[in-house]
Design goal:
Layout: E1 2-8, H1 16-26, E2 31-37, H2 43-50, E3 56-63, H3 68-83, E4 86-93, H4 101-124
Parallel strand pairs: 1-2, 1-3, 3-4
Helix pairs in contact: 1-4, 2-3
């Protein structure tokens, strides 16, 4: 299985190495590739290129202009539908740029654990996303 990480080079946080280590421990024989884009607008283009030889694509970008988020996500959805390669689209406003080094380290650890489990659930645990009935008492 091949997983490609695609990130924006201006992200205030890069946890791909930590995420890769966790995924390698959880998924035997996984191949990982990291790619970075100079402009947020390039994310769908690089995702389309990576979809040719990837089984799963993880896109993570922190952007300064929130109006870009829906457009980039829509283009990534178009790539996902055209290529039939699953893409986890995490394009959001940058909320980490003001953090100090210790907080960034803690956030890297937290994000890598959270997203490693999410990726494993998406790939191997179809019941992880089954809605649960809420008690109305």
């Amino acid at each position: 299985m091949r997983i490609t990480f695609i990130g924006y080079k201006e992200n205030s946080i890069n946890f791909f190495p930590e995420l890769g280590k966790l995924l390698s421990a959880k998924i035997s024989g996984v191949e990982l590739e990291e790619r970075f884009v100079p402009f947020v607008e390039d994310l769908p283009i690089v995702a389309a290129e990576a979809s040719a030889d990837s089984d799963f694509i993880f896109v993570y970008a922190l952007v300064d202009e929130s109006e870009q988020v829906p457009l980039i996500k829509q283009k990534l959805i178009d790539v996902e539908l055209a290529s039939k390669t699953r893409i986890l689209k995490l394009v959001e406003d940058d909320s980490f740029s003001g953090l100090n080094q210790d907080d960034l380290f803690d956030k890297k650890t937290e994000l890598s654990r959270e997203y490693a489990q999410l990726i494993v659930d998406i790939l191997f645990n179809e019941h992880a996303f089954t809605p649960k009935e809420k008690e109305l008492y």
